[in-house]
Specification:
The protein contains 15 helices and ten strands. By secondary structure, it is α/β, with parallel strands linked by helices. It folds into two domains: 7-314, TIM Barrel (Alpha-Beta Barrel); 336-409, no CATH class. It is globular, with a radius of gyration of 20 Å. The structure holds iron/sulfur cluster (SF4) (2 copies). One iron/sulfur cluster (SF4) binds at residues 339, 341, 343, 345, 378, 380-381, 384, 386-388, 398-399, 402.
Length: 411
């Protein structure tokens, strides 16, 4: 990826949606690159036996069919999406690719399941997924980020998945989690025995999932990893007013360049080091990476099969120092029990990261934040003493972060 994504790219990928109607002008240049990296390593995804590219593609950000096609041409063969990603639009984009080359890649999609859902409702919704994906089956159907362990044992969910498997529409069952209860949820699923593949958070600043990976290997459950880059662009943690929204990307890119210059980072070395850090754990099946354009796909793929080095360690150490008290660790939530008002600290700050760092403002605003119950939003923070801050071992200025997050996400 070039130094920063241009405003043009941002507008086409983050704000205008993923219909594929907007063409990135920078795609052909990358596509014409003479020496393209290729996937060098495929790993077995637990008992599924699926051999997946160590660097794989996550469709949680807006993408175009051409980018997915290019990723497949580079050797990526596992694509992760979900019913709710861009309200089905992510599946539609993948469907544009799947209708021509379904056999070239595995597809994982996800359904959110609640306790009152019936078997028929879940099957109906899944048929919607198949229609959008333009395929007759998916390789893995995941339970999307369950809120508690009870969801994992719901009879309606299991009978629906079982029926879909009998009909040949689903091959394996999976589960994703990035909640504070991620460890409990994943370990419960592993012991339950009915979940073949997991997707969860593991990165150089959030290592506690190493225990999940070890447990999964013992039970032959496949592991796929998200949020590889921790906070991604800490320098973009800027407050952006309504009037500035159109200039968000240009300013973020400028800040990114200044940050890198000041601390001697190059994007390539940081992103590569973070990917290689995860993949040095040989029990990991694959990293699931969002790829916005051709160059980013090539950059990520170039890390396939590579070892984690001392230089990588030094890069990540320098980065970790800079964002130590800025990165609200995914799947943490340690401070939440100390909030007398029950604010969903980890969820709010994670969604704020989608907004500020991942450039997914539309999705964050319209979907995720709205779904947080009103009594769990950080409304009391303005007048509160900030009890949570004393219980964040990383020293985040939690109260102010929550106040500004709420402002951004409700504007
Ligand atoms: S603010 Fe600190 S303690 Fe609270 S969830 Fe984030 S990282 Fe964990
Ligand atoms: S500032 Fe107060 S209200 Fe807000 S999350 Fe922290 S403890 Fe809860």
């Amino acid at each position: 990826m070039s130094d920063g994504i241009s405003r043009r790219s941002f507008l086409s990928s983050g704000v205008l949606g993923v219909a594929g109607a907007v063409v990135h002008r920078d795609l052909p240049r990358a596509a014409q690159s003479q020496v393209r990296p290729k996937i060098k390593e495929y790993r077995t995804l637990g008992r599924t036996g699926m051999r997946v590219s160590d660097v794989s593609l996550g469709a949680g950000v807006s993408q175009e069919p051409a980018v997915i096609n290019h990723a497949l041409d580079l050797g990526i063969n596992y694509v992760d999406t979900g019913e709710r990603y861009f309200r089905g639009q992510s599946e539609r984009v993948i469907g544009e690719v799947a209708k021509r080359r379904r056999k070239d890649f595995f597809i994982t999609t996800k359904l959110e399941v609640h306790k009152n859902h019936t078997e028929e409702q879940l099957i109906d919704r899944f048929h919607g997924c198949l229609e959008r994906l333009q395929t007759g089956y998916v390789d893995v159907l995941m339970l999307h980020n369950p809120v508690d362990k009870e969801v994992l044992t719901l009879p309606a969910f299991h009978s629906a998945f079982q029926k879909l498997k009998s009909d040949g529409k689903v091959k394996f069952t999976g589960l994703s989690s990035h909640e504070p209860i991620m460890g409990d949820i994943c370990n419960f699923a592993i012991e339950d025995g009915r979940f073949d593949v997991l997707l969860f958070v593991y990165n150089f600043m959030q290592e506690k999932a190493a225990e999940i990976i070890k447990h999964a290997r013992q039970k032959d459950v496949g592991t796929t990893i998200m949020k590889v880059h921790a906070g991604e662009h800490p320098e973009q943690l800027t407050i952006v007013s309504r009037e500035e929204r159109q200039k968000l990307q240009e300013e973020a890119d400028r800040q990114t360049l200044l940050f890198r210059k000041k601390y001697g980072f190059t994007e390539k070395e940081y992103f590569g080091a973070a990917i290689r850090w995860v993949l040095q754990n040989k029990d990991v099946g694959c990293t699931v990476m969002s790829m916005r354009n051709f160059e980013q796909a090539e950059e990520y793929v170039s890390n396939s099969g590579k070892s984690f080095t001392n230089d990588d360690r030094a890069t990540l150490d320098r980065y970790a120092v800079k964002i130590h008290n800025a990165y609200c660790r995914h799947a943490c939530g340690e401070c939440e029990s100390h909030c007398p008002y029950g604010v969903a600290v980890n969820d709010v700050l994670r969604i704020d990261t989608y907004f500020t760092n991942y450039r997914q403002e539309k999705m964050a605003l319209l979907s995720y934040y709205e779904e947080i119950e009103e009594n769990r939003k950080p409304l009391p923070c303005r007048t509160c003493e900030g009890f949570c801050e004393a219980h964040c071992r990383y020293g985040l200025p939690v109260r102010n972060r929550l106040i500004s997050a709420h402002e951004r996400l409700t504007m």
